[in-house]
Write a structure and sequence with these properties.
Number of strands of chain A: 0
Number of helices of chain B: 18
CATH superfamily of the largest domain in chain A: Cytochrome c oxidase, subunit III, four-helix bundle
Order of helices and strands of chain B: HHHHHHHHHHHHHHHHHH
Distance between the termini of chain A: 51 Å
Strand content of chain B: under 5%
Structural class of chain B: mainly alpha
Largest sheet of chain A: none
Distance between the termini of chain B: 41 Å
Oligomer: heterodimer
Largest interface: A-B, 79 and 89 residues
Largest sheet of chain B: none
Strand content of chain A: under 5%
Number of domains of chain A: 2
Helix content of chain B: 55-70%
CATH topology of the largest domain in chain A: Four Helix Bundle (Hemerythrin (Met), subunit A)
Number of strands of chain B: 0
Radius of gyration of chain A: 23 Å
């Protein structure tokens, strides 16, 4: 420990953060304009170009930043203390992601337990129901909203169940990829990691299928009341996280092929795998609370 | 890879000074540089938000509408609130954390220095977007800083999307900053700096950082739902679709209540640092201060609906939130009594940081008392949305958070610049601020109790006299801050007497063991902790 502490690693100045800040700025301005333009005129205006440039800058930033980071790590500049910092940073980042999903789960629970029953006259709201929407029936899934929008509910049998099995399996494969890495079994590592990526991609394809099914066959849309809202925002944000996680794993896969990780030095691998487990756990909660119950 | 070879030779690198010119500030990974950037940014935002407050007070100088349109008035109250919360108070505390936490725990820098740079530099862009949205056709956000639905969904202007994305960026910045503070404190403490030896400023920031990573993502969720409700036809906050506008308030205040402790816990840390120094006694009840901070943080998660007593919640919920809210006064009381007990029979001296700290203790407690009044459900029905509420949260935020930040600046500025600031000007600043801030906010209690509603550009004629006085106090308080600006600029230009490493004779802590001004890199080898 003593030797470690006398050898702090303080990284040099870097141009990437400011590039990232400009990227964030353009993404925000572009997205803000795009959304406002779409709602006013129905057409995507100049906002989309700014948004695109912003995303490209963010990608370049990530590429450059991680490239520097990787070459510094491979040059042996990082020490054990920095590894602990990175791991702690990643775990608290995942915690903040959990809280982001918690907001949407909170909205789901509030709608189911409070706002929909109250609109139907529960608690002391009999008069509210009578005056506002007397024919409204409070049931969940909310297939007919007080305003009269109708939809069919999404079952859990079929695609969602298959997707659950796929993600659960991928959590197991990434685990065995990790044990393979720790035991320095490169073959097991690449095979299991490759499998995880394939499973992630299949999940995404099936999720698109499910959305098409929802829109075309069930009439379940983003604007079909609070059931559709919570369904699409929860599964949508989860899908975005699966996409990011898969991209993350693909980068890791190429780094594995390049021989980057060693049994005792593989922070990037570990954080990708943590992220993947997190995405998996969120899906389990989704499956239980959005689909089954 | 020039940078690589540079960092490879640690010893030479650490004795390097900063890079030259603008590049130093844009590319920096140094916690002191980033702290300075945060503090100047916060100060500029404080002046911008303050200018908006001056517009508000000018309009309210007389009853009737005379200077600005009501819609513009709404934009001013909204953006004033957003800027002061997210642009002034929070970045200022983050700046203090950046400057002081590594020095206080004997670390060479923050744990993740490059991310530190990113978390600062996205902030000016976020506020550029927010301020630019004022010039969009239809005006900027005008729904109050709390952006209640349906004001922010059904009835808001086209700039709402820009507001949403600006808030997203502020949130990302705060989350990264908080992760950095947490990891620094967990992982970078010098050997021997055990948890219960940490200075209270470090402790309070540690707990604050946890509040930040727990609730800033919830704010991101809230603005996202506002965005989809407004632009994509969802009905989270629309009863016709099975949602509820009150649900917005629940989500918002689940963020919003811990947020107010995010803005006051680091202030408690600052006061707990300054009072012992000028009492020449150790802090009374250090462990109880730590536990009280943790209790306040815990309770802050289960009191949010006291902002919503008039929304028609079930009686059980009203009682639960009332009792939990009142419970917070216990750990807060522990703190106030401990500060007073620290001063009791101490060898007191009244340097400027101490003056602001004593003002903090008295005036923050006053704001706490009006908070207790507001916590009582039945009387809150009377006070809700009146100037009494405005008086309450300005006492805790201006004479609380802002006074603590000013006190901290007067306490550590000599350490940062290496010279003693102009003490005469500082005392002038103190007395002008102290008198004007009370002329400004104290009468708000009276007009509020008499029924003057907040956020309205016009008022009934019987409130005219008090409002005139309030506005005069407001202008005086605004002008007083220019004294502070002049004083800080003077100190930054090194105009003043050089100071020794230990600026205050009663001060304790590692930051007083390094030279003044603090060298660019401190504690590249960990210090000895006794």
């Amino acid at each position: 420990m003593a030797e470690q502490n006398s050898h702090y690693y303080v990284p040099a100045q870097s141009p990437w953060p400011i590039v990232g800040a400009i990227g964030f700025f353009l993404v925000a301005v572009g997205a803000g304009n795009l959304v406002a333009q779409l709602s006013q005129t129905g057409e995507a205006g100049w906002g989309r170009f700014i948004l695109l440039v912003g995303f490209i800058i963010l990608l370049v930033m990530m590429f450059g930043w991680f490239k520097d980071q990787i070459s510094e790590s491979r040059a042996g500049l990082h020490n054990a203390q920095l590894g602990v910092s990175y791991r702690q940073g990643m775990s608290w980042f995942i915690f903040s992601e959990v809280m982001f999903f918690a907001a949407f789960f909170g909205a789901l629970f509030y709608a189911r337990m409070i706002s929909v029953p109250w609109l139907g006259g529960a608690s002391n709201n009999a008069m509210t129901a009578e005056v506002l929407w007397p024919s409204f029936e409070a049931i969940w899934p909310l297939t007919t909203t007080p305003g009269g929008t109708t939809t069919q509910a999404m079952g859990y049998w079929g695609l969602p169940l298959i997707n659950t099995i796929i993600l659960l399996t991928s959590s197991i494969t990434i685990h065995f990829a990790h044990t393979g890495l720790e035991a320095n079994k490169r073959k097991q590592l690449t095979l299991m990691l490759g499998l995880t990526i394939l499973l992630g991609m299949s999940f995404l394809v099936l999720q698109v299928e499910e959305y098409i099914h929802a829109y075309q066959d069930l009439g379940l849309k983003l604007d079909s009341g609070v059931y559709g809202n919570t369904f699409f925002l929860l599964t949508g944000f989860h899908g975005m996280h699966v996409t990011l996680g898969t991209l993350f794993l693909i980068v890791i896969f190429f780094r594995v092929l390049a021989g980057h990780f060693s049994p005792d030095n593989h922070f990037a691998f570990q954080s990708a795998s943590w992220y993947w487990h997190f995405v998996d756990v969120v899906w389990l909660c989704l499956f239980v609370f959005v689909y089954i119950i | 890879m020039n940078t690589l070879t540079e960092t490879a030779s640690h010893d030479t690198e650490h004795h390097h000074g900063p890079a030259k010119g603008i590049k130093r500030w844009i590319f920096t990974t140094n916690h002191k540089d980033i702290g300075t950037l945060y503090l100047w940014f916060a100060f500029i935002m404080f002046l911008v938000g303050g200018a908006m407050a001056m517009v508000i007070r000018a309009e309210l100088f007389q009853p009737g509408l005379q200077i600005v349109e009501p819609h513009f008035f709404n934009q001013m109250t909204t953006v004033h609130g957003l800027i002061m919360v997210f642009g002034a108070v929070m970045p200022a505390f983050t700046g203090m954390a950046n400057w002081m936490i590594p020095m206080m725990i004997g670390a060479p820098d923050m744990a993740l220095p490059r991310m530190n740079n990113l978390s600062f530099w996205i902030l000016p862009f976020a506020f550029l977007i927010l301020l630019a949205s004022l010039f969009v056709e239809g005006g900027g956000p005008a729904f109050g800083w709390t952006f209640y639905a349906p004001l922010s969904t059904t009835y808001s202007g086209d700039s709402t999307a820009l507001f949403v994305f600006a808030v997203h960026i502020m949130g990302i910045s705060s989350i990264m900053g908080a992760i950095n503070v947490i990891v620094t404190i967990w992982n970078m403490r010098a050997p021997g700096m055990t948890w219960m030896k940490m200075p209270l400023f470090v402790w309070t920031w540690f707990i604050t950082a946890y509040l930040l990573i727990a609730v800033m993502p919830v704010l991101a969720g809230a603005v996202t739902m506002v965005l989809t409700d407004k632009y994509f036809g969802t009905s989270f906050f629309n009863a016709a679709g099975g949602g509820d506008p009150v649900m917005f308030q629940h989500i918002f205040w689940f963020f919003g209540h811990p947020e107010v402790y995010i803005m006051i816990l680091p202030a408690f840390g600052i006061i707990s640092t300054i009072v012992p120094t000028f009492s020449r006694k150790p802090l009374f009840g250090y462990p109880s201060m730590v536990y009280a901070t943790a209790s306040i943080a815990f309770l802050s998660f289960i009191v949010w609906a006291h902002h919503m007593f008039t929304t028609g919640m079930p009686v059980f919920a009203e009682l639960f939130f009332m009792y939990c809210t009142m419970l917070i006064s216990v750990p807060t009381g522990v703190k106030v009594f401990n500060w007073v007990a620290t001063m009791w029979r101490g060898a007191l001296s009244f340097e400027v940081p101490m003056l602001f700290s004593i003002a903090f203790i008295v005036l923050f407690t006053l704001g706490g008392f009006s908070g207790l009044m507001l916590a009582i459900t039945p009387v809150d029905f009377q006070y809700h949305d009146t100037y009494f509420v405005v008086a309450h949260f300005h006492y805790v935020l201006v004479t609380g958070a802002i006074f603590s930040l000013i006190a901290a600046t007067y306490y550590w500025l000599p350490k940062w610049t290496g010279v003693m600031y102009d003490i005469g000007l500082a005392k002038l600043h103190f007395w002008c601020s102290l008198i004007s801030v009370n002329v400004l906010f104290f009468p708000m209690h009276f007009v509020g109790l008499a029924g003057m509603p907040r956020r309205i550009p016009d008022y009934s004629i019987q409130f005219a006299n008090w409002n005139q006085l309030i506005s005069l106090g407001g202008f005086a308080f605004g002008l007083s801050q220019l004294i502070f600006l002049a004083l800080v600029i003077k100190a930054c230009r090194k105009q003043g007497e050089p100071v020794p490493a230990k600026v205050w004779d009663g001060a304790h802590g590692l930051e007083w063991e390094v030279a003044s001004p603090a060298p660019y890199h401190t504690f590249t080898t960990p210090p000895e902790i006794k």
